[in-house]
Amino acid sequence: MKGKKEILIGLVVLVGVSAMTVGGFYLKGQNVFIKKRSYFVVFEQISGLVVSNPIRVNGFKVGQVANISLRDDRKILCELLIEQDDLQVTQGSVAMLDQDLFGAMSINLKINSSTEQLCAVGDTLSGKKSSAITEVVMQQLKPLVVKVERVIETIDTLTVDLQSVVGGNKHNLNNIFDSLTMGIEQFTTLATSMNGLIEDNKSKLTSTLTSIDSVMASLKESNQDVSNVLANLSDISDSLADAGIRSTIIEARTALNGVNAILYQINNGDGTLSQLIKSPELIDKVEAMVDEAQRLIENIKEHPNRYLQFSVFGGKSKGLKLDSRDEENFKKWVKECLPKDSVDCN
Q1: φ, ψ (nearest 5 deg) of residue 24
Q2: Which of 42, 144, 260, 322 qualifies as a cystine partner to 327, CB 3.0-4.6 A?
Q3: How far apart are CA 317 and CA 197, in angstroms?
Q4: Around 21, how many Cα atoms within 13 Å sit in the side-chain half-sphere?
Q5: Which stretch, 10-19, 239-248, 325-334, has highest mean pLDDT?
Q6: 3-state secondary structure string, the chain?
Q7: How many Cβ atoms are within 10 Å of 275's Cβ, its own excluded?
Q8: Which residues of 79-95 are buried (b: 16+ CB within 10 A; e: fewer)?
Q9: Entry pTM
Q10: What digits encode the pLDDT tens for the residues 309-344?
């Protein structure tokens, strides 16, 4: 009976120790009932990485950091405990030391998918440190910071220039502001006057707008008449087009060209008409001939017996002897100048 109690106490102690051990590993984030694989990685510095920090693949937790130790060359050796059974760690995979926005450290495992050769348990993986979020943000903000600094420098320079300008031209600025104030006051007065003018002539403006409306209405009513006028104009233009205006214009142009040719010949001295217009000698001769004929006619009228003698009984002819040509001309003048019943030239 006594031996049974000792065995029972030993079993209780053993179960308690086992439970405490399992609980301790559980508190550390380790599950003793899962098959685990250990890999190692070396970092130059770990930036606050501690035991039990998670190991993730694409953000999914697959294990945790089991141990961290300092090697003789002052590099940090980390033991990675992979708890995911179906995770295949291939050769060329990289353990990235990562830091989130709140500063918590973790290891991001980059699996090499270009090969199917697996790493053996206990192999050492390549370790790299990824850029922290703060560093990435600072790199992105660095150009903006430079631009802001330049803007601040420009503002400082502008402020200094404005101070120098204002300090040297304070009186002029005061005059400018006074002028602006006066201009605003005058504009206010003008606006008030305009309001009063509009108010006084409101009825006239209303009447004018009413007249404009009536005119527009009349134009709208006359729209059909205007359309008819345009249609008539179109018919007239079609009629003119059918009437052969083009051929008439061509004929008129041809006639004008002929007249121009005649005028050109007259101006250049070709032909009798040109000679008559431009030759003073011919004009003088014609005028002299007309004068002589006029004198002859006057002389015949005054003394017809000098040129014509008539014999009733066939007496001997006396007087002026003319040839046939002169006689014909003379008879013509007599017929034209003397009364028809006064003398018989035949």
Answers
A1: -65, -45
A2: 322
A3: 116
A4: 8
A5: 10-19
A6: CHHHHHHHHHHHHHHHHHHHHHHHHHHCCCCCCCCCEEEEEEECCCCCCCCCCEEEECCEEEEEEEEEEECCCCCEEEEEEECCCCCCCECCCEEEEEECCCCCEEEEEECCCCCCCECCCCCEEEEEECCCHHHHHHHHHHHHHHHHHHHHHHHHHHHHHHHHHHHHCHHHHHHHHHHHHHHHHHHHHHHHHHHHHHHHCHHHHHHHHHHHHHHHHHHHHCHHHHHHHHHHHHHHHHHHHHCCHHHHHHHHHHHHHHHHHHHHHHHCCCCHHHHHHHCHHHHHHHHHHHHHHHHHHHHHHHCHHHCCCCCCCCCCCCCCCCCHHHHHHHHHHHHHHCCCCCCCCC
A7: 14
A8: bbbbbbeeeebeeebeb
A9: 0.35
A10: 544 445 454 455 555 666 667 777 766 666 555 544
> Within a 10 A sphere around the Cβ of 161, how many other Cβ atoms?
10
Q: Are 81 and 65 in contact (CB under 8 A)?
A: yes
- How do residues 87-112 score in pLDDT, each as one tens digit? 889 999 999 988 877 778 889 999 99
